[in-house]
Amino acid sequence: MNFFHLVPQIHYGPGAAAAAGEALRELGVSDVLVVTDQGVLDAGVIDPVLKSVKDAGVACTVFSDLRTNPSEQHVAGAAHMYQTLGCDGILGVGGGSSLDVAKSAAVIIADGGCITSYEDGARAVTGTPPPLVQVPTTAGTGSEVVAGAIITDSSRAFKMHVVATPAQVALCDPELTLTLPAGPTAASGVDALAHAIGAYTSVESQPLADAMALRAISAIGRWLPVAVANGDDLRARDQMMTGALTAGISMKGGGAADHAFAHAVNALFDVHHGVGVALFLADAMEHNLPHMPDRFADIALALGVRPFGDSTALGRAGIDVVRSLVASLPIPALAQIGVTEADLPALVDKVQADRFHLGLNRVPVTVDDTWRILRAALARS
User: Measuring CA to CA, which of 94, 242, 245, 248 is 20 to 30 A from 219?
Assistant: First the structure.
């Protein structure tokens, strides 16, 4: 028997962010902690959200002490500010880092301790988390609709999966992404594409998630190049926001090995998560293709490949589309972010330590496989 559980009430489309204040008020929030990053704050992207909160009569304090790959220290800082100021709700606004810190801080507020103790559900969330509303400003992570979070354990330099807490409300407004530069647009979009492809090929794939995944693959494959080339194209941004949202929902069906490689690179070189994903997505697909050609044929069709040959040939054509897409985007190569041959042993260890994502992959990824994939990626750069 399959099980599919989705908590947040989702509002999506242009103007959705204006519902933030009303959503908080309906949840009984009178004093909210806004978790965001300084870049979003400085760019004014958050202004419509803050106006909505103010218009609703909800007091707010902004916590923006974040980084691209946030650690347990950032989570602790947000939780401490919440408790010190006597807030009664959390509003996450930003990319995946902000949204992950928001939901992780909610866990600490509910049950205490350090977020590292909640890795992979090792410690259950038994208390009642504060009301949580999430507003993404990128079309990428899908963090607004899932309970899990990725937080760096600074003592291990390791990006761990935390079983956190879901939002009550997610507000997905493509207008907030209109000023996102081409680089982050590309990286976020490939991340969303990887979520959908990973979910469709995961050990946890299921029909409801499959439908969302294929919808996301189709939308992102078509509209990501448009959004990167023309950032002010609202239709493209709307399609990307919906694509990232459905990809996030499809992650109820799991993930794939590309994220294990990405997290290793992110942890050691502190680059945008989507950059790491883009460097390994096609390689992970090639690794899995021989074991599930029919699934990859479906992915190829969703990417617009015309039917031909057998499933393996069709699936390989889909992988070629993904490689070409990534190559056309402003994504740095592995060597450009500072990776050398000397770094590979540490990266292999990090990849192999990510049992969560490797465990979701239908095909085992051995140490030898990890070396092969990393060397191939480095050689291409």
Answer: 94
In the chain the beta strands, taken as DSSP E runs, fall at 9-12, 31-35, 59-63, 89-94, 132-136, 148-153, 158-163, 169-172
HSE of 373 in the Cβ direction (CA atoms, 13 Å)?
29
Query: What is the rounded distance in angstroms from the CA atom of residue 281 to the CA atom of residue 378?
Result: 14
Residue 307 lies in a domain: yes
| CA–CA gap between residue 262 and residue 283 (Å, rounded) | 12
Question: Beta strand 132-136 with 148-153: parallel, antiparallel or unpaired?
Answer: unpaired
Question: Residue 184: which H helix or E strand, with range?
Answer: helix 182-200
Neighbours of 326 (CB within 10 A): 18
Bridge partners of residue 9, in order along the sequence: 169
Flag whether 1 is in a domain: no
Please report, for the domain that includes residue 145, its CATH number: 3.40.50.1970
Distance CA 269, CA 261 (A): 12
Last residue of a domain, one of 151, 177, 203: 177
What's the CATH code of the domain at 284? 1.20.1090.10
Q: Enter the pTM of the model.
A: 0.94
Give the range of the structural domain holding residue 363, as residue numbers without chain letter: 182-380
**Boundary of a domain, candidates 177, 211, 246:** 177
Which residues, in sequence order, are CB contacts of 374 under 8 Å at separation 6+? 261, 344, 347, 348, 351
Per-residue model confidence as pLDDT tens digits over 196-223:
999 999 998 989 899 999 999 999 999 9
**Residues 163/147, Cβ–Cβ less than 8 Å:** yes
